[in-house]
Amino acid sequence: MKKIFAVMLFVSLLFIAACGSQETNNGSEGDSNGEAIASQKVMKFAVATPDERSLTKGLYKFAEIVEEKTEGSVKVEVYPNGVLGGDREVFEGLQLGSIEATTISTGPVAQFAPRFSVFDLPFLFPTAEVAYEVLDGPLGEELLGDLDSQGVVGLNYWENGFRHLTNNVKEVKSIDDIKGLKIRTLENELHIDMWRELGANPTPMAFTELFAGLQQGVVDGQENPVGNVTTTNFYEVQKYITKTNHIYNASVFMISEGFWNSLTEEEQQMIKEAADEARDYQRELNQQEDIDAFEFLTEVGMTITELSPEEMEKIVEKVQPIYEKYSSKIGEEFVTNILEAVRQ
Question: Comparing C-alpha atoms, which of 73, 243, 106 is closest to residue 165?
Answer without folding.
Answer: 243
